[in-house]
Amino acid sequence: MDSKMIAYEDGDILVLNKPSGLPTVPLRDKGGETLLDIAGSVDKKTLGAFGKNQWEGGAIHRLDTLTSGLVVFAKNQDSYDFLQSEQLNGDIWKTYYAKTEDRREGVDGFPDFPYESAIETSGIIRSYFRPYGKGRKSVRPALREYESPKIYSTEVINRANGVFSCTIALGFRHQIRAHLAWAGHPVWGDALYGGKERDEFGLCAYEISFRRVKDGRLIGIRASSEAPFL
């Protein structure tokens, strides 16, 4: 393991910088190395804390396999329970950088996009979500409640040249990918949402902020000294 993968560590948590292409936790019916395996090699206590899925270990959240960036692991059950509660309350903030492209024609299932000013400069994209497509492998934003009872928000800043920073607290599966594709700017290489098949995937979980378990102090962690794709 490259030591640069360790973005932060203390007695309660470990934060790793995941490369694109590596699953966060074991996938159903699939083998191979995961980020959880690497976390366990750094400190095996990350394997001992868990929620409803014991096989996910102390992973507080997950990133899509193609997405790179920061993932938090708890080293004990108290830390896991505390951070999961913080996450459910919307008190863990994650900022992603997204390199995007123009959406191809013929991608269906998206309602009309009502947040043009948000994508042109900065603002907030909000929606419900619904599963979509064969095998429910993707999602689509919805303007009324479907299977998801919550409205999910993505705070967007246009960094120019097709790069956006996107901040979320409560997150839904593929939220940023779907919101950007809804705006006509799918993540670079995201063929599932109307981009082209590419060797590079343009989404990185760059920064995360949360309260420390022991003293409640707010900390912010970055994946690197420079924002990606700029």
Which tags fit this structure?
about 15% helix, 10-stranded mixed β-sheet, alpha+beta, Pseudouridine synthase, about 230 residues, 10 strands, 2 domains
CATH level-1 class of the largest domain: Alpha Beta
Low-confidence stretches: none
From the coordinates shown, what is the CATH architecture of the largest domain?
A: 2-Layer Sandwich
Total of helices: 4
User: Care to count the β-strands?
Assistant: 10
> Strand fraction band?
25-35%
State the secondary-structure class: alpha+beta
The major β-sheet equals: 10 strands, mixed
What would you give as the CATH superfamily of the largest domain? Pseudouridine synthase
- Could you tell me the radius of gyration in angstroms? 17 Å
**CATH fold-level assignment of the largest domain:** Pseudouridine synthase
Mean pLDDT: 93
Give helix % range.
10-25%
Count of the separate structural domains: 2
| Ends distance | 27 Å
Task: Write the topology of this structure.
Layout: E1 6-9, E2 13-18, H1 35-42, E3 68-74, H2 77-88, E4 93-99, H3 116-120, E5 122-132, E6 138-142, E7 152-158, E8 163-168, H4 175-182, E9 203-211, E10 218-222
Parallel strand pairs: 3-9
Antiparallel strand pairs: 1-2, 2-3, 4-8, 4-9, 5-6, 5-7, 7-8, 9-10
Description:
- The protein is α+β, with helices and mostly antiparallel strands.
- It folds into two domains: 3-92 and 208-222, Pseudouridine synthase (2-Layer Sandwich), CATH 3.30.2350.10; 101-201, no CATH class.
- It has helices at 35-42, 77-88, 116-120, 175-182; strands at residues 6-9, 13-18, 68-74, 93-99, 122-132, 138-142, 152-158, 163-168, 203-211, 218-222.
- The longest helix is centred in the middle third of the chain and has 12 residues, at 77-88.
- The two termini are 27 Å apart.
- The relative contact order is 0.18.
- The model has no long low-confidence stretch (mean pLDDT 93).
